[in-house]
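Protein chain data
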Amino acid sequence: MPKPTTPTLQHRLEYVGFRAVAGIMNALPLGVASATMGFVWKILARFNHRHATVQKHLREAFPAKDEAWIRQTTFRHWNNLGRTMAEGLCIGKLLKQRHRITLESQDLIDQLAQSTKGAVFVSLHMGNWELLAVPALQNGLSMAGIYQRASNPLVDRYIRLVRQPLYPGGLHSKRNTSVNALIKWVRGGETVCMMGDLRQRRGIEVPFFGQMVPSTPFPAMIAEKLDVPLIAACCRRTKGCHFTIQVVEISTGTGETVDDRIADATARLNKQFEDWIRETPEQWMWGHRRR
């Protein structure tokens, strides 16, 4: 287990600012907090160093779209991310208002809940991806999660604290020691959730928006190794703070070798992600590299 980082003065000052923003957001009605943060992010977006990157990636992914569409989609993208940040700070309040979250794939969730097998859920940074564990929890699936640690240890501890109720199996940071714990959890008939749509430097190349991009094979590897379903999950914002969640089972990869089957399943997973992104491109996080 890695030695905890000792908070510095800068960490403490950042944390004070972070908790102040969280306090303000939680003092407001949920819809107001979400709309306010979305508006602020949309206004300040042009000063963000990733603003040009978002536009570049949209042009590459949608070459037939004109500049007016690129600009509009870029600002709507920032609005969604701002809303998502506010809702993440108010996650406890949001979880008490379950009417805001609609599951479109109840039959598949019921099948997984009744099965003695585990499952691997893989999601993408769309809509409010923090909510993807809610339907699993509501339907009796005991899920473990994996996340990217925040650089500030105080902020990281707070994030883990507010997210923990969603993950009865624990919330594990991305490190080698987490792999065995997650495999053991799934082997015991439980489920695990992770993100799978960002660039993986040492990943395998699969098609994504007409380019070959390095992607993580980890979800498909666990599903193949343990012979459990590989499930793609997507959260979409419908209006304001209302969401729909869709889950789709990714068909088993084909190929003579294990590596071939993992690569094929990873490609199928990314194809599903691309299909969802094309439907609501303003809700995906375009600021990160995929190549």
Notes: Residues 67-89 form the longest helix (23 residues). The chain has eleven helices and nine strands. The longest strand covers residues 230-239. The chain has one domain: 9-283.
